């Protein structure tokens, strides 16, 4: 969920390399290129300003920018991904990258220290993921996508887009590379009872469109180009 600048190349920054059976994800900027928007400090925390008189009330434009930065943290909350749970003979369970194609919808659940991805119908209105693309590296999916890799083979990576519904509210956990099950912790919540967030994020989907959305002042944005263009305008819950 980001506030990228306008112009060519977002999210289609080219991933340069040799072609292979898994198309590289277009959301990953080329090596050495500056990031398209400011990155947060480690851990998702934003430093407080020096002590002094209360700051003036922000304009709608300033609030929109602030929400955009926080929206980036929302994406980062699940980009850490996890490890697939293997050994189940159920045909709906995803054992490797060859079990799914782009556009397949998945439900992700967790074990003690691993994840299980199960193929589901894309008609569901429950929170789920959809396969956007595949990558040979855990770092090839780009900032707008979550990363799911497989036990014993981290070169088989699924790049997943989160699927939300307009009018619903969601909780995404904090980003932690040490927690391999964070993908399964993202969930729908009661809009009137947000979960104490800490470094996590609670938000409401105001609108959902089949394009890069033009969100009004006071709202952030989450946009993915794959597997099909989908954009959301969001507001953070207190």
TrEMBL record:
Positions of region (Disordered): 1-58
Alphabetized UniProt keyword annotations: Membrane, Transmembrane, Transmembrane helix
Compositional bias of kind Pro residues: 20-56
Regions crossing the membrane: 63-86
UniProt cross-references to SUPFAM superfamilies, sorted A to Z: beta-sandwich domain of Sec23/24
The protein's name in its UniProt record: Uncharacterized protein
UniProt source species: Gordonia rubripertincta
Lineage of source species: Bacteria, Bacillati, Actinomycetota, Actinomycetes, Mycobacteriales
């Amino acid at each position: 969920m980001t506030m990228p600048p306008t112009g060519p190349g977002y999210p289609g920054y080219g991933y340069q390399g040799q072609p292979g059976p898994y198309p590289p994800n277009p959301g990953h900027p080329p090596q050495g290129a500056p990031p398209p928007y400011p990155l947060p400090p480690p851990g998702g925390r934003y430093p407080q300003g020096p002590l002094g008189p209360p700051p003036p009330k922000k304009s709608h434009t300033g609030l929109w920018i602030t929400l955009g930065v926080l929206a980036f943290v929302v994406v980062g909350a699940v980009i850490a991904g996890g490890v697939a749970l293997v050994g189940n003979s159920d045909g709906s369970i995803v054992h490797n990258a060859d079990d799914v194609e782009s556009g397949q919808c998945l439900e992700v659940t967790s074990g003690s220290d691993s994840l299980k991805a199960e193929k589901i119908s894309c008609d569901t209105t429950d929170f789920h993921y959809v396969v956007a693309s595949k990558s040979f590296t855990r770092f090839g999916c780009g900032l707008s996508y979550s990363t799911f890799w497989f036990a014993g083979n981290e070169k088989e990576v699924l790049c997943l887009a989160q699927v939300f519904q307009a009018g619903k509210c969601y909780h995404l956990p904090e980003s932690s590379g040490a927690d391999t099950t964070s993908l399964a912790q993202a969930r729908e919540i009661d809009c009137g009872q947000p979960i104490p967030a800490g470094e996590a994020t609670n938000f409401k989907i105001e609108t959902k469109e089949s394009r890069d959305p033009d969100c009004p002042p006071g709202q952030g944005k989450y946009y993915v180009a794959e597997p099909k263009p989908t954009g959301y305008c969001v507001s953070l819950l207190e």
